[in-house]
Amino acid sequence: MQIERQRLQREKQLREDAERARDELERRLIQLQDEAHMANEALLRSEQTADLLAEKAQIAEEEAKLLAKKAAEAETEMQRIKVTAMRGQEERRIMEQKVLEAEKRALKMAEESERRAKEAEQLKQDLQEARDSERRAKNKLLEITSKAIYMVTDRGHVRLSNTDSVQMCKIHVCTI
């Protein structure tokens, strides 16, 4: 009778231990699912940011090329104006004014072209950083989804085994 009571007490204790272990594993599973969800969201944001930065970099590069072309055209126009400016005093004064304006425009366009080229380079760097961030987020997600959790009790092993994802887990109770 005493032995039977001790055995029942021991089984009750083992059941309570197993339930506590199961509850802890369920809590950890929920935590890992939350982490995986956050990592997925971060990955999605990184991918979107990388796409936007790539598009901005391409646009900035095209604008820089267009401004460089316009600057070259302005320089050509300035040279043409200088050649034709050799007529009469009034005509010469007007032409010098046009040359000065063309030089200013050419200078502004060259500065704008340089600024756009720098902006394109910065956007390329931002894109690389976004891709690196995306890679880190993917690695974190892989790390989270590939973890398997093991807990050892004094009478056996409780193991949470990972099948295809953290969301599909089984609890195994093994006694010695």
From TrEMBL:
State the signal peptide span: none
Q: Which residues form the Ezrin/radixin/moesin alpha-helical domain?
A: 15-134
Sequence segments annotated as region (Disordered): 1-20
Q: Which domain of life is it from?
A: Eukaryota
Transmembrane regions: none
User: What InterPro entries is this protein classified in?
Assistant: ERM, ERM_helical
Protein name per UniProt: Ezrin/radixin/moesin alpha-helical domain-containing protein
- Name the source organism: Goodea atripinnis
